Structure to design on (520 residues):
């Protein structure tokens, strides 16, 4: 498979017109047609359906377009990325985090980027999923880390980061501290500390997925405020197990179905990324999330 | 026993259905391996890729310790690749002693990159060729035929999950060696998974290239 064949494929997929794609690629139409045929041989089937007046992508063509477009962009930008990053050109990196996803999950990658270029201009924004997605689609954010759901917009490309359990955070000496696992009924009897926005996935896990509605509740607008209140024995909290907490708070597994969530990284499909953002994406995709497991086990 | 003999012996232990799929693939990829792959004299494509420890690896930095050996492998799920990487690991100290360096590229992402590096105790960097863009620029990319993809998923190997996309692209098994100026001096790629460059051949190549550099340095 050759780079030029992919360039022509992407151009033809954009224009759906052999003449215009050949003009835009500065080759003759027969040369473009031959390259597409060779690519079709390599990929094992036709990429386009040629009808009398119309050219359409086949199912294989639709399947191959996004990954080949990404590979082409990466290949094309490799030199530019390396040079710009090396020259320490300021390139913004704007990331949204859905409520309850801790910044800590990004920091190893951000640190690795900073070690190579200290002039990164970073913006982190926490919020509800709808607002974060809206800002990403409006071009105000490059990436968003979200809790995976089935209704994510098609325009957003997604990669799995990690899966984690929801756990109960309680102070030592609490009546549930010695339990191997706690039930929804146990949580209902407690004073529960929750995010004040009902869109927070950790709150939705308790109230919507497990139908737990404790009579005693306190509200805050960040996980750190919530954990501060747990620390002060004002109640217990349910959060993802990767949420960092200072000792001596304890994490206890929750016996619920489902008891896990998957956290994903998303970006707008087809939108070009700046040098820093492109390298951030590579680092995030190559990150070994299971390396955090021993630290989590020790914390539990 | 040479690496190729070891791999050929491993192949005979695989089910006939799998061997037949691999034979068909090797036949289909003959043209790809002959035509599109970079050749000696071509400039090596540069890259910036994340390694198994979460750090960025710049090819420019690696070239400072050239000759640079670049090896493409499919992933630690492939027993033929694991055997090859272990064999390379044995000569890695000699490669380093010759003043050269070695890097291995896989299309795998996430935990799988670290699994290859730590699991095999490799002393050289393993980097994730995210999106397969570097393989594409070296001309070693191919799409796995549906029948073979189906076979692998049937035995629990899901390359889509490992790569983080659904393109089913893999690199040919390939070895390149670049000199200090980033020009390829050695290139070998094959669609036959047992057809790998012997570690001793790689070592002989880098020693010869290192000697040439020393001779040039001494004559100035």
């Amino acid at each position: 498979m050759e780079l030029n064949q992919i360039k022509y494929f992407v151009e033809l997929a954009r224009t759906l017109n052999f003449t215009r794609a050949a003009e835009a690629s500065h080759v003759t139409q027969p040369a473009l047609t031959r390259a597409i045929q060779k690519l079709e041989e390599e990929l094992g089937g036709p990429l386009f359906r040629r009808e009398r007046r119309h050219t359409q992508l086949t199912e294989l063509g639709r399947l191959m377009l996004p990954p080949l477009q990404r590979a082409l962009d990466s290949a094309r930008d490799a030199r530019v990325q390396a040079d710009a990053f090396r020259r320490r050109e300021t390139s913004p990196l704007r990331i949204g985090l859905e409520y309850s996803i801790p910044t800590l999950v990004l920091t190893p990658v951000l640190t690795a980027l900073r070690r190579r270029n200290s002039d990164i201009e970073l913006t982190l924004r926490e919020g509800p999923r709808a607002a974060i997605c809206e800002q990403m689609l409006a071009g105000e954010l490059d990436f968003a880390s979200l809790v995976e759901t089935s209704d994510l917009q098609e325009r957003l490309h997604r990669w799995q980061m990690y899966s984690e359990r929801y756990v109960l955070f309680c102070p030592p000496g609490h009546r549930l501290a010695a339990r191997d696992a706690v039930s929804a009924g146990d949580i209902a009897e407690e004073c529960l500390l929750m995010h004040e926005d009902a869109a927070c996935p950790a709150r939705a896990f308790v109230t919507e997925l497990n139908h737990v509605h404790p009579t005693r509740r306190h509200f805050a607008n960040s996980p750190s405020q919530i954990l501060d209140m747990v620390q002060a024995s004002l109640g217990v909290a349910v959060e993802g197990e990767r949420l960092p907490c200072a000792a001596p708070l304890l994490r206890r597994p929750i016996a619920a179905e489902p008891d896990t969530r998957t956290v994903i990284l998303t970006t707008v499909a087809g939108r070009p990324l700046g040098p820093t953002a492109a390298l951030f994406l590579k680092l995030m995709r190559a990150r070994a999330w299971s390396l955090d497991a021993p630290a989590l086990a020790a914390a539990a | 026993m040479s690496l190729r003999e070891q791999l050929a012996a491993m192949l005979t232990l695989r089910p006939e259905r799998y061997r037949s799929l691999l034979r068909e693939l090797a036949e289909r990829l003959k043209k790809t391996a002959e035509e599109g792959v970079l050749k000696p004299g071509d400039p090596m494509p540069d890259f910036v890729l994340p390694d198994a420890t979460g750090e960025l690896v710049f090819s420019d930095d690696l070239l400072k310790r050239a000759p640079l050996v670049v090896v493409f492998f499919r992933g630690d799920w492939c027993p033929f690749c694991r055997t090859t990487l272990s064999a390379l690991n044995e000569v890695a100290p000699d490669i380093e002693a010759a003043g050269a360096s070695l890097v291995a590229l896989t299309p795998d992402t996430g935990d799988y990159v670290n699994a290859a590096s730590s699991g095999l105790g490799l002393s050289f960097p393993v980097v994730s060729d995210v999106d397969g863009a570097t393989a594409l620029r070296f001309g070693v990319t191919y799409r796995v035929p549906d029948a073979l993809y189906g076979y692998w998923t049937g035995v629990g190997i899901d390359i889509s999950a490992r790569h983080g996309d659904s393109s089913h692209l893999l690199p040919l098994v390939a070895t390149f060696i670049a000199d200090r100026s980033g020009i390829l001096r050695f290139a070998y790629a094959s669609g036959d998974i047992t057809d790998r460059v012997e570690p001793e051949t790689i070592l002989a190549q880098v020693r010869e290239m290192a000697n040439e550099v020393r001779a040039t340095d001494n004559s100035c």
Chain B has a mean pLDDT of 93.
